[in-house]
Amino acid sequence: MFHWLEKHPFFFAVGVFLTVAFAGLVTILPNFAQSSRPVIGTAPYSTLELAGRHVYIKNSCNACHSQLVRPFKSETDRYGHYSLSGEYAYDRPFLWGSKRTGPDLMRVGNYRTTDWHENHMKDPSGVVPGSIMPAYRWMFTNAADIDTAFAEQLTVAQFFSVPYNKPVPMRDGSTMVVKMGSSLADANVLALAEAKVIVEDMKDQDVKDAVANGKIPEIVALIAYLNSLK
Amino acid sequence: MDIAELQAYGYFALTVILVVFLYTYIYHLYTKRKDADGHDYEDYGNIALKDDIGDAPVSPMSDDKEK
Amino acid sequence: MENRPLEYDYTVTKMFMLTTIILGIVGMLIGVVLAFQMAYPELNLVLGEGLAEYTNFSRLRPLHTDAVIFGFTLSGIFSTWYYVGQRVLKVSMAESGFLMFIGKLHFWLYLVGVAAVVVSLFLGITTSKEYAEFEWPIDIAIVVVWVLFGISIFGLIGIRREKSLYISIWYYIATFLGIAMLYLFNNMEIPTILGESAAGESGIGAWYHSVSMYAGTNDAMVQWWYGHNAVAFGFTVPIVAMIYYFLPKESGQAIYSYKLSLLSFWGLMFVYLWAGGHHLLYSTVPDWVQTMGSIFSVILILPSWGSAINMLLTMKGEWQQVAASPLIKFMILASTFYMFSTLEGPIQAIKSVNAIAHFTDWIVGHVHDGTLGWVGFMIMAALFHMAPRVFKREIYSKSLMATQFWIQTLGIVLYFTSMWIAGITQGMMWRAHDEFGNLAYSFIDTVTILHPYYTIRGVGGLLYLVGFLMFSYNIYKTMSARPVEESELQSASPMGA
User: With an 8 Å Cβ cutoff, are A7 and B25 in contact?
Assistant: First the structure.
């Protein structure tokens, strides 16, 4: 058998492929259904939050910040409850990160405010002396891409049955509905309404003016996303 | 039997098969010493050394026809 | 034509040598900038406030990893394939117009892909998955490039004169198949232009945007199955292919044990794929995946060391060559670093060690042991060996080469020692509690303490970059150095002063 394989490159290639593929099949496939079930209290992202998530990804925040609290006392003390698989059910892609140059952000919404983020994104070392995080001032002028966020909501609702406009169970026994626009114009109206709530707590006059004029800067979307991380 | 159990059995069985396969291969290499064409395995190390286009191949493609 | 003897045709090899060097400089330069940005954050504004968005750490970081992986390393792999492939199969690219065409198409499409990647990453168009940041249009281009690589591999094998496939060819085939499978599965994504609103609108938003087929924990498992094995099939398998050819050829010694090379090959193929779970220890993936990731990572030492020891033993009785030839020095140090990082990796994969090491700079240090010491040194050695043969000229300067070797070795040592200390310091500080059971340090304490190590790391990286520039200059000057005769090109490469 070995002699024969040595002389037949095609079957040799098939052999390599099977050997290599075997591990993937056994490790990954069988757990798919189980891991993707959301835990109670996990809701899909709203349009503005999703746009903020895109800003987070666009600027590779995940290169320095993890979103995964490991089950150690030191981590639960610092960041809150350890992560559960179902909490990530609506994360496409996952943003666990692989390096903590800065702190974990899995539950940053529990202990940081809109105001804090606004100051921090403008001048990180002014808020946290010694910080090596760069400033992200362009986020205060660049417009958030609400259209793409809406397109993504439609796609996940259509292909992965993410429950938009449907009741989602909460931890206290109540339910909540995450609304998704019925048209592009409707989605923009919903996002703007959310943005208005965020800017109430902000100080930057240019950002306030932009939102008043119907435009949403990236920073507003990003803060909406960060506040949703709980 | 749920999927996890199947996975475990499947994993165990395949690991055993592969281990058996690997050791048979080692046994095969070191007892036979030569491959199907009668070349010593160690001769193949020379493929890298005698690799000018004019050098004679260690195991020419035309071997089959001669036999 | 009739009377000219048949020769190997290195046109495509030369093209990819060029991109290896250029993308190597780009990727390493960005790496050095990033390293100093972490030590001195003001450097994020190096080109002023107006361009801050594009010179920022966060935009440059994926550009660095992708430039060195898909630029430098992949070009090196392609360039050596078009060299080694012809030679050990004893068939010239000049014999097949079709394969020559495929080879050139392969190069030009690759270049288009590289350009698209650079532009998109600067603009922040990314999927965020490490080493798979590209959006779907680029993914499709990459698949096409990869298929062309496959056609060229199997095409050359199809018209070969040497019946038996040399061990390097096995590794190149495995590279092709492995990456193909991993890349396809990890990049399963749905373009969001397909989403249709209740009002019947579709094609909304950015056309290039897509959403991953997998969510959360599943996405993480697929990503690290990919991420870990992209390292296997991009940084290990093809580099082993190179050393199995270039070390014996340069030293004139056949592989110590060909049988051992076959065994290690199959061992590596089987074990490597299981080890991806070690990136996800203490996360929300199932426990058994984590445990298996740990166990198989430790087992992985065996096949890795099988190859490494085989390389070192190839030099048995010929160690004076290591002292005499800087080219052999590069390869021997490469295999030593291979042994070193394949021992360090499994140690970090042990759960209790990983609890400290994960998320810290120790991991960054480990990656760079492998990439700077093993991948970088081997690819440079391969180019040094190929240069006299493809240009038919002696290597411009042996002493420049020796100087480069020592400068870069010093760079690597500074790099990994500083990252070890930084990583372990930070890992220990994160978990430290005071006598009352409260956290002993706030997060920022664990950042400011790293400043000296980040500076040392930056210097280490800079030394490596300087060495790489010396390498580039040496290769450039080789193109106009003293011509050599065919007879001088048997094993050891000819070198000028």
Answer: no
Provide the Cα torsion C72, C76, C77, C82; round to 10°.
Answer: 140
C354 → chain A, closest CA residue: A70
- ipTM score here? 0.93
* Residue B2 within a domain: no
Query: Which two three-digit tokens encode residue B53?
Result: 């286009």
Count Cβ atoms within 10 A of the Cβ of residue C323 and give its class: 0-12 exposed, 13-18 middle, 19 or more buried: exposed
Domain that holds residue B38: 30-54
What's the predicted TM-score (pTM) here? 0.93
In which region does residue A60 sit, left (phi positive, over 0), alpha (psi from -120 to 50) or beta (all else)? left
Residue A97, sorted as left (phi over 0), alpha (psi -120 to 50) or beta, turns out to be: left
Contact B25 A2 (CB under 8 A): yes
Distances in Å between the Cα of C44 and the Cα atoms of A62, C41, C52, C123, C460 are 17, 6, 7, 16, 20
pLDDT tens sequence across A99-148:
999 999 999 999 999 999 999 999 999 999 999 999 999 999 999 999 99
Q: For A47-228, which CATH superfamily applies?
A: Cytochrome c-like domain (1.10.760.10)
- In total, how many domains does chain B have? 1
- Boundaries of every domain in chain A: 2-35, 47-228
Task: Centre a 10 Å sphere on the Cβ of residue C453 and count the other Cβ atoms it contains.
Answer: 22
- Taken in order C264, C79, C29, A65, the sign of the CA dihedral is negative
Q: How far is C372 from chain A (nearest CA, A)?
A: 20
**Is B39 inside a domain boundary?**
yes
Q: Does A22 touch chain B (CB under 8 A)?
A: yes
> Residue C195's closest CA among C207, C182, C178, C185?
C207
Q: Which helix (H) or strand (E) holds A177?
A: strand A175-177
Delineate the domains of chain C, giving CATH numbers in brackets: 11-192+210-485 (1.20.210.10)
Tens of pLDDT, residues C302-331: 889 999 999 999 998 889 999 999 999 999
Q: What is the DSSP string of C265-284?
A: HHHHHHHHGGGGGGGGTTSS
Cβ of A3 within 8 Å of Cβ of B36? The answer is yes
Q: How far apart are CA A57 and CA C126, in angstroms?
A: 7
